[in-house]
Amino acid sequence: MKQWEQEKLKPIDKVFEPDFRNLLSCPDSNKAFEMHYNAISEISLSEDVDDDVRTQFEIARNLFLYSFFYYRFGMTSFKQAAACTELALRRYLGKPNNDRENGMKKLLRRAQSQGYINVKVLKPHLEPEQYIDILTNFRNDQAHGSHSLFMPQDCLSFIEDYSELLNQFFSNIRKKNIQASIDGWQ
């Protein structure tokens, strides 16, 4: 199958069959699914994280889980995890009525410079600005239309990083008793 080839809706009797690409490294579908499930089940958010952000993050986890049956959901799961992070950062660090200052890259930079996140913990071999560029470039690629197709393990790595960023962020804002700068429903 070519990367750009259209994948039509599966017939009803094949909906729960694994996407063949998920069986390339482990042809036993039961074992492959268990490994896929275990990988995403190990990633979670702490109780410090706002409820609505955790709810949105669970969508990312479920999309990743179901990417076992439909491979391209992996990319959507990564995009959803990024959106959760942006939601949280915008709420607490965003500038009301100033969309130019509320982009993902600026919010991540602000969180890093103010000590709410430490990107070096995630990627010690990269400078924080390098990794912020990587996160936001991949996120922008997905958010603004893309043909990219990452392997599930790559998507999982980004989801894991976003969960760590969210856990760091909320732990630090709770310790410092930071209040939201933007209403959560905007």
What does this structure look like?
The chain has seven helices and no strands. The longest helix is centred in the last third of the chain and has 24 residues, at 152-175. The model has no long low-confidence stretch (mean pLDDT 89). The protein has helices at 29-41, 51-66, 73-93, 104-113, 119-122, 128-143, 152-175. α1 runs antiparallel to α2 (51-66) and α4 runs antiparallel to α6 (128-143). It has 186 residues and is an all-alpha fold. The protein is elongated, with a radius of gyration of 18 Å. Helix content is 56%, strand content 0%. The protein has one domain (25-175).
State the separation between the terminal residues, measured CA to CA: 42 Å
Rounded average pLDDT = 89
**Domain module tally:** 1
Principal-axes shape call: elongated
Helix-strand pattern: HHHHHHH
- How does the helix and strand content classify structurally? mainly alpha
Count of strand segments = 0
Largest sheet geometry: none
Radius of gyration (CA) equals 18 Å
Low-confidence stretches: none
Key structural traits:
56% helix, 186 residues
Write a brief caption for the model.
With 186 residues, the protein is mainly α. The protein has helices at residues 29-41, 51-66, 73-93, 104-113, 119-122, 128-143, 152-175.
